[in-house]
Each structure stands twice: as C-alpha cells, then as structure tokens.
C-alpha cells in the first residue's frame, strides 16, 4: 500500500489570512489542490491531511475525499507525522510519502520516479532533492563519496564552508518504508532551541541503526518552491502563469500579448484558439479550436465550442456552442446554455437559460430561467421576469418567435412558435403559435400638459437662447 501524509497545519502568519496557508490560491486553485491532483495522477490515493490552524476550512474544501488528522499543538513536522500514526498503522506494509503542504509544483513524474528509486534501492528513507542556483536557507544534502547514499541533511547554520557550497537541497519531501517510519517516530526528541520534533531527524536515526538512506534528485527544480508572504505568493503565481502559458504556446494556442492573462492549469484550450489580453480563465474550462476569448473576459468552469468569439464576457458554469458571438459586456450565469450560432450582444445577462440554435439576444436584455427555441429574436430591452418575490418560474419561447422591444414576459408564460409580441407589451398570458401578443394601453395625448408641467424649465431655456 502506498500512503501519503500531507502536512497542512501551518498558519502562514505573514500571509495575514484567515485561512490555512495550504488553501492560498495559485492561479485560482488552492495549493492543496495542486498537490492532491499530482498525487492522483501518480496513483497515490490513500492520503491523510494533517490539519491545524483553521482546520474547518480544509475539512470543507476536502469534503470527505481524504482522511484528516487534527494537530492541536504545532510542535514541528515530526510531531505532525506522529498525529497521523493511526492512519499509517492501518496500512503498515509498503511505502509512505511525507509531503509539505505548501509546495504547489510537485509533479506526478517526480513522485513516480522517486518511489521507484526508493523501492529499487531498498531504502528505509529517501529524500527528494533539487539542484538550485541559490541554496541559501535550505538544508544541504550530504552524500557518500560515490554519491549513491545519503549521509546527512545539514542545515545551513551547521554547514562547514565546503558544505555550504553544495547546491543540492532538501525539498522537505520524503519516501519512507512505512514500518521503519512507525518504528522511528517514537524515537524523535525535541531537544532543540524550538522544542519541536523534526521529521528530518529520522534520517540520522535510521542511519545510526544501519538502515539505508538515499536521495533522489528531481529534474523539476520548482518542487522546492514555496512562499511565506504575499510577495512570495505573487512570485509563485507568476511562475505558474508563465508555465501554463508556455505550455499552451507549445500546443498551438495563439497568445499575441500575455498581459493580464491568467489561465488555470486544469483548463483545456485547443490548438488554433486565441486568448487576448486581460482574460482570466479559472477552474475547468474547455475552449474549442479557432475560438477567440477576450479581451477582458473572465471564464470559470465554462466550455466554449469551435469558432466562437467572446469579447468582454463574464461566464460562470456556462456552456457556449460553436460559431457563437458573445459580447461585449455580457454576463452568463450558472446554467446558461447557448447552442450553436447564437448571438448575444452588448449589455445582456442570461441565467439558467437554454438558447436555441441561431437565436439572437442582441442588446440590453435579461433572460432568467427560460427555454428559448431556434431562430428566436429578442428586441432591445426585452426581458423575462422570472421571480415574483417568492417563487422562480420559467418562460418558454418557441422556435422562430419574435420578441418586440421592451417586452416583459412574466413567468410562467409560453410564447408559441413563430409568435410575435408587440413592442412595449407586458405579457402575462400564453401566446398561441403564429399569433401577435399585445398588452399595452391605447395612447392618449393631453394637449398643453407638458407646457404647464415644464413651464419653469422652458423659461430657463429661453434665457439661454437669448
């Protein structure tokens, strides 16, 4: 059995956040999510997350997907692993990964290769390491003369001059033989200035008992990156942003200028699509071939078909078909479905509504909780009134219907196929197929009313003319 223990109890005081450090977002995705996704890709699914500060936020985020263990007192990394002992005892055969919960850039390849290295060497413990240009502040990896085994992890303050020159550093991530780990945890001591238990001390204990320790050098140097303050988080975001953009460029996505572009690593963008400046794509979005998104658009958990264009669009949990034009200044709220060849123009909001093929919602419209057929046209300012203050109801508009300007459809109401509504109507009853619905009073003009009402205004206007 392959286990993993994620150390996620840290507060990150310098972040000044009410949430745990591990829930700080990188490209709109919590650090913990980056880690667990990498674990799943590597086939590691028996996971325990050790929580501490504001643990209720992590419990809510995980939603029971993984086991958790609460560390009431944060007495070091070794103590955190002790808290997970009951979890480990249930699966004592095999290996266990101990992983810091503030390192978002772990990858499945490193996890798989380091585990294979650990098992093939018969190690009791294997430290995942990285070669960096500037090792300042990190523990140095001291290897045997032939480089095959780990002799020690030396903290910088304890390094001899020649050891300080070593650029291979401890990532803070370890593979253990689970039985060896369980036997070693009770031997940890807190005889240090911080009075804490350190998981790194297990290496010295295991070596003193004649057990084998190794170090696996990861190709991915970013595995060691973490941050303790907002400036550091900004740097992590920029690193992640560039990595995602570079990958998309390699895959054939067109990005003319990367200014303001933020794209989730969980989103998929097809070759030939174009992303314009100021576009933010978060969650799990899908964008089809030859579609254009942006400028200044925000998509979250939204899919877009092929050859569609989105200009200044905010879309959340929406589905947009192929050959659609949307924007500018459009909001598509959850439950919106635009079929192929739909046109949505400026200053339109749509919520929980399906719009059929070839239909047009051109300008200054609101559609909520509606089912719209094919080839329907909405005139300027028309809307569906879906909420009566207590209940929400749906409107149904049939194929080829024409909704006149400034029409109010009061749900629940049905407009039949090829039916019309007269401009300025408030429709409260169903309109049969092919009929014209008119719901407005006959016009009456009152002579002289405006002149009396606006006398002072008109007098003021005369003064300006003079």
**Integer average pLDDT:** 94
CATH architecture of the largest domain: Alpha-Beta Complex
Distance between the termini: 94 Å
Supply the number of structural domains. 2
Computed over alpha carbons, the radius of gyration is 31 Å
Q: Can you summarize the main beta sheet?
A: 15 strands, parallel
Q: State the CATH topology of the largest domain.
A: Spore Coat Polysaccharide Biosynthesis Protein SpsA, Chain A
SSE diagram, text form:
Blueprint lengths: L1 E7 L16 E2 L2 E2 H11 L4 E6 L3 H8 L4 E4 L6 H7 L1 H5 L5 E6 L7 H13 L4 E7 L8 E4 L6 E5 L6 H4 L3 E10 H7 L16 H8 L4 E5 L12 H21 L11 E2 L4 E2 L4 E2 L4 E3 L3 E2 L4 E2 L4 E3 L2 E2 L4 E2 L2 E4 L2 E2 L4 E2 L3 E3 L4 E2 L4 E9 L2 E2 L4 E9 L1 E3 L4 E2 L4 E3 L9 E3 L4 E2 L4 E3 L2 E3 L4 E2 L4 E2 L8 E2 L11 H5 L1 H11 L1
Parallel strand pairs: 1-4, 1-6, 4-5, 7-11, 12-15, 13-16, 14-17, 15-18, 16-19, 17-20, 18-21, 19-22, 20-23, 21-24, 22-25, 23-26, 24-26, 25-27, 26-28, 27-29, 28-30, 29-32, 30-33, 31-34, 32-35, 33-36, 34-37, 36-38
Antiparallel strand pairs: 2-3, 6-10, 7-10, 8-9
What does this structure look like?
The protein folds into two domains: 2-224, Spore Coat Polysaccharide Biosynthesis Protein SpsA, Chain A; 230-437, Hexapeptide repeat proteins (UDP N-Acetylglucosamine Acyltransferase, domain 1, 3 Solenoid). Helices cover 21% and strands 29% of the residues. The relative contact order is 0.07. It has eleven helices and 38 strands. It is α/β, with parallel strands linked by helices and 466 residues long. The chain has a 15-stranded parallel sheet that branches. Strands 13-16-19-22-25-27-29-32-35 form a nine-stranded parallel sheet, with no helix packed on it. It starts with a strand and ends with a helix.
């Amino acid at each position: 059995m392959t286990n993993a223990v994620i150390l996620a109890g840290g507060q990150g005081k310098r972040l000044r956040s009410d949430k745990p450090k591990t829930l700080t977002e990188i490209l709109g995705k919590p650090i913990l999510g980056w880690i667990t996704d990498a674990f799943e890709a590597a086939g590691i699914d028996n996971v325990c997350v050790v929580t501490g500060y504001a643990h209720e936020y992590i419990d809510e985020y995980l939603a029971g997907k993984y086991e958790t263990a609460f560390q009431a007192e944060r007495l070091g990394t070794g103590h955190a692993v002790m808290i997970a002992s009951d979890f480990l005892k249930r699966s004592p055969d095999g290996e266990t990964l101990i992983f810091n919960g503030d390192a978002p850039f772990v990858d499945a390849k490193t996890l798989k290769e380091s585990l294979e290295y650990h098992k093939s060497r018969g190690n009791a413990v294997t430290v995942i390491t990285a070669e960096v240009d500037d090792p300042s502040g990190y523990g140095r990896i001291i290897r045997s003369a032939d480089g095959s085994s780990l002799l020690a992890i030396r903290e910088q303050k304890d390094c001899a001059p020649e050891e300080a020159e070593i650029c291979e550093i401890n990532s803070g991530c370890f593979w253990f033989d689970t039985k060896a780990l369980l036997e070693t945890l009770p031997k940890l001591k807190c005889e240090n200035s911080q009075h804490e238990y350190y998981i790194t001390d297990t290496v010295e204990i295991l070596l003193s008992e004649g057990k084998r320790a190794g170090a696996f050098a990861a190709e991915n140097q970013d595995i060691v990156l973490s941050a303790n303050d907002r400036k550091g988080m900004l740097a992590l975001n920029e690193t992640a942003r560039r990595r995602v953009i570079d990958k998309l460029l390699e895959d054939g996505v067109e990005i003319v200028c990367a200014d303001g572009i933020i794209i989730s690593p969980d989103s998929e963008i097809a070759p030939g699509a174009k992303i314009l400046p100021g576009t933010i794509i978060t969650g799990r979005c899908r964008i089809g071939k030859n579609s254009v998104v942006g400028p200044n658009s925000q998509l979250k958990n939204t899919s877009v078909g092929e050859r569609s264009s989105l200009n200044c669009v905010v879309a959340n949990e929406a589905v947009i078909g192929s050959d659609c034009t949307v924007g500018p200044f459009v909001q598509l709220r959850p439950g919106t479905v635009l079929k192929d060849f739909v046109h949505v123009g400026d200053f339109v909001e749509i919520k929980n509504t399906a719009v059929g093929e070839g239909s047009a919602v051109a300008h200054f419209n609101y559609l909520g909780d509606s089912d719209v057929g094919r080839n329907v046209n909405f005139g300027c300012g028309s809307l569906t009134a879906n909420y009566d203050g207590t209940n929400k109801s749906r409107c149904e508009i049939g194929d080829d219907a024409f909704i006149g300007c400034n029409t109010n459809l009061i749900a629940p109401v049905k407009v039949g196929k090829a039916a019309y509504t007269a401009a300025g109507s408030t429709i409260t009853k169903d309109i049969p197929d092919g009929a014209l619905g008119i719901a407005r009073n006959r016009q009456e003009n009152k002579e002289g009313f405006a002149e009396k009402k606006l006398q002072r205004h008109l007098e003021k206007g005369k003064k300006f003319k003079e």
